[in-house]
Design goal:
The complex is a heterodimer of chains A (79) and B (305). Chain A is mostly helical. Chain A has two helices and no strands. Chain A is 96% helix and 0% strand. In chain A, helix 1 packs antiparallel against helix 2. In chain B, the strands form two sheets. Chain B has a two-stranded antiparallel ribbon with strand order 1-2. Classes of the chains: A mainly alpha (79), B mainly alpha (305).
């Protein structure tokens, strides 16, 4: 049980490091470029912005969960 | 990092850490975590209107992650969640109208603060009494447990819950996933009251709805957590939409917060598999107390967190 816990913890820490690198890239590549366009939509098309906000949020949620699940599976397989 | 929609400069690391903490709480307890996120966003200079709207948007994403995880464990009753969403949205609208009335009367802050403190303290007191009594009576195994053992969910309040389930007010709804048959009106009433408090006190009111689902509807704790999160996706999406129309949502801040919450919510959801229902309920007790402490601090010092 202790070995299993240690393995899980190690896999999780590796995942966290890879995830952090991906997220930093995501901040600069995606969010930076989205900023201006979203600001324009938020100012001029409120309803479109509202719908887009929810879609972006749900889209990111599904994407990040798939990324973390994939990473964890990959790390566990290589351990 | 500059966020052009709200015009705020906030450290992304700070947002990710806040998201991570709230993610864990949300995944484990089935709450939105507004009582932490609101003051945390406010503390870095975001206006209240943006703090509330942006927090709601981030709650949508975090709940999606936690629900997918809970669903994999069989902890989500979709039928119950959809019915509750109707009552919650109606209650939230009435709560918001009450706030408008109090605003016109000019005493909104004091009334909301006192009601919040009473509600939070009552929930905590009741849950600490019930969960401790249940743990003493049921003699559950110490430490953490795993799998089906964790889903063993006795309650010292079961006799009252059974009495409520015996009220045959048609139409009766059978919830096969939760293993409960109960009047539709009782489900809607519970959801309405949760929504009312959410609209009145702010946030998703998971701190009221999750315990109500367990004690009033008789839903097992693990299912109450997962189903409440599913219901939060619908009600928080509705809240995000209405706030975004009013210009109160900075989706970029929400997206950054969510990168931390996505990991936290998964950890929280997975952790529920290692604790029995009464232990989750006992661990829940500090959450409303933190909410009450924040309000008391605000009332005493005059500084809004």
């Amino acid at each position: 049980m202790k070995k299993e816990t240690a393995n899980t913890l190690r896999a999780f820490l590796i995942e966290l490091v890879i995830y952090a690198v991906l997220i930093v890239g995501y901040f600069f590549l995606v969010l930076h470029f989205l900023g201006e366009g979203l600001q324009r939509i938020a100012q001029n098309h409120r309803y479109t912005y509202a719908g887009l906000a929810i879609l972006l949020m749900i889209g990111q949620a599904v994407l990040l969960q798939n990324v973390t699940t994939f990473l964890l599976r990959l790390i566990r397989r290589t351990q | 990092m500059f966020f052009p929609i709200s015009g705020a400069h906030i450290s992304p690391t700070y947002l990710v850490i806040i998201g991570f903490i709230i993610g864990i709480l949300g995944g484990f307890f089935g709450v939105g975590g507004s009582f932490i996120a609101g003051p945390a966003l406010r503390a870095v200079g975001l206006d209240w209107n943006f703090a509330i709207g942006t927090d709601l948007a981030h709650i949508v994403g975090k709940s999606v992650v936690a629900v997918r995880q809970h669903r994999a464990f069989g902890n989500v009753d979709l039928k119950l969640g959809l019915i509750m969403a109707i009552g919650t949205i109606a209650g939230a609208e009435v709560g918001a109208q009450l706030i408008q009335m109090l605003k016109r009367a000019g005493n909104v802050n004091l009334v909301v603060s006192i009601v919040s403190i009473v509600v939070y303290l009552s929930i905590s007191s009741f849950m600490i009494w019930e969960s401790r009594k249940t743990l003493a009576q049921a003699q559950l195994p110490g430490g953490t447990v795993k799998g089906e053992k964790a889903k063993h969910d006795p309650s010292a309040f079961k006799h009252v819950t059974s009495g409520i389930q015996r009220l045959k007010i048609p139409p009766m709804i059978t919830l096969p996933v939760s293993g409960v048959t109960i009047s539709l009106w009782i489900i809607l009433l519970v959801a309405f009251i949760g929504g009312l408090f959410g609209g009145f006190l702010g946030g998703g009111a998971g701190y009221i709805r999750m315990p109500s689902m367990v004690y009033v509807l008789g839903i097992p704790t693990h299912l109450a957590v997962g189903t409440d999160l599913f219901e939060i996706i619908i009600s928080a999406s509705y809240g995000t939409f209405t706030h975004a129309i009013k210009g109160n949502v900075d989706i970029l801040i929400a997206l950054v917060m969510h990168t931390g919450a996505a990991i936290g919510a998964q950890i929280g959801a997975i952790s529920t598999q290692y604790f029995t229902g009464p232990k989750i309920r006992l661990a829940f007790v500090p959450l409303p107390l933190i909410g009450a402490a924040i309000i008391i601090y605000t009332l005493v010092t005059g500084h809004k967190l």
